[in-house]
Amino acid sequence: MDSASTSITLSEHGEYAAQTSAKDLILHLNPTSSGFQDVEIVKAKECSLKFLKFSRESYTVSPDTYTTRGESPPGRRVLHASDSRVLVWQLLPLQLHAEIESIEPGALNIDFGSDENEVIVFHAWNTRLTVYALDTGRSQVIKSPKFAHHNGFGYRPKTGQFAILLKPDAADLLTIHGFRSYELINRAVLPTVDAQGLKWSPDGRWVAVWDTASAGTKVLVFTADGQLFRTYAGPPGFDDSLDLGVRGIEWSPVASDRGISEHLAIGKVDGTVDILRCKTFSCSTTLSHSFEIDENSPSIWRERYATADGTLEYAESSSSSAFSIIAESSSPPRGVSIMAFSFSERFLATVDQTRPNIVWIWNLESTAVLVSALVHEHPVRQAVWHPSKVQLLITTANIALPAVRSWTPDGQPSVIHIPASRSDSGRYDVRWLSSNEGDNSKFWFGTTEDYTLGCIESADAASHFKVLNTIKNKASPGSSMSR
To answer: Gene3D superfamilies annotated for this entry (predicted)?
Structure first.
């Protein structure tokens, strides 16, 4: 990943940013502040870079866990990994914390583990996973991980038990391991053809595993200690002779008033979404990405170029003609590619690859109903909900115009131009800041070469993007920040 050595990396919720220049690692420790104070530069031992990762914002394990053990929670950290060495820095105050040498070349993934005191390394060819404990200097090995990416493993929210898919031979295995000890809690041989991934529910009560699409609809739900609780194979009366299988799954967030995740969305290759209630894991409704005109039709908004200045805007469409144009021919992989719940579980945004330029927004409050459809000129890349209010940001693969689209339940959606560098690939990334208060919530927009931080402001019935700060790649610290 030579490109990683010249890229900008943001922490999970945008509170920190890092970039490299030769052996310099440039850390923006408070990029949301006025004027980009707290920029630090440290020297890495090598120019080559494969992975640059921040530890996560919230501890996988509650800080109370450390208090009961008479310890202090670790601070935020960043790791810089080459093909043979891992360096870990403490951020506040900035100092080198640990170094892991003699890493075998060809690592597929290197990241933090259950907390900032662990580094996990997936070795070449997925032969094994090594867990390094930075506080004790010990390491542990788990053999034959099936995947090195995030769908192949996960840490249980709050308590940190580790779940991982293994493929030691012909059969898929799910194993659950203890927090920090990695002692085996349970081991399940999976009745799958080719398991595609696992995901913990945000409340930590369940682990779901989904099978390859060619096996038809098959989602296995396990308890937190690895006991099979339910096998989902489709809704009642489902004709499995036409079953094209599962593309992916998504848990709803924890409902603030009840403290549990209430829904599991299963995106299918045929373009439908089964919504399961987590009490029984039975299908409560199936969402279909087909449109029929009737008196209860949802609001349809079509993206178009404004005649006056050539910018984009949404115009309301009153007929299914809005769906007549497909941005690109549908190509593999087919099915539902995006499923995103709003913070309150009330809304679900989906994208089906049959029409990859449309975002469908569903209200799941009582009976699931389609409330809006946003039709774009180009395929949709992201649909990202605000962490604490009902606002959706959308990016598309529009290489001509850097822009973000904003939808709320009230009023007309808007297309906001971003004064950022144009991307020839259209791979723009948008990310809300986690600590967003007030009306003008901040978010990052950009690519690995150029990130802009700002917020949407409204004046005279029009919305525009207010730039707060910018990070540009391959620049000295003094010139990489602007207001």
So the answer is: YVTN repeat-like/Quinoprotein amine dehydrogenase
Dihedral angle sign, alpha carbons of residues 318, 320, 324, 327: positive
Any idea which residue has 């892991």 for tokens? 100
In a domain, 397, yes or no: yes
Last residue of a domain, one of 45, 77, 106: 106
Asked if the structure places residue 129 within a domain, the reply is no
Domain finish residue from 90, 106, 122: 106
Classify residue 427: in a domain, yes or no.
Answer: yes
Domain count, the chain: 2
Q: What is the DSSP string of 232-290?
A: E--STT--GGG---EEEEEEPPBPTTT-SB-EEEEEETTSEEEEEETTTTEEEEEEE--
Structure tokens at 70: 């008479």
pLDDT in tens, 321-369: 666 655 454 566 789 999 999 999 999 999 999 999 999 999 999 889 9
Closest CA to 332 of 348, 356, 350, 349: 356
Tokens 């009230």 correspond to 410
| Residue 459: CATH number of its domain | 2.130.10.10
Distances (CA, A) of 428 to 12, 18, 343, 420: 16, 18, 23, 10
Instruction: List the Cα angle 75/429/50 in 5-degree steps.
Output: 60
The answer to whether residue 205 is domain-embedded is no
Domain that residue 465 falls in: 325-483
> Tens of pLDDT along 178-193?
999 999 999 999 999 9
| pLDDT for the residue 160 | 95
pTM of the complete model: 0.92
The sheet carrying 347-352 orders its strands as: 312-317, 299-305, 369-375, 358-363, 347-352, 336-341
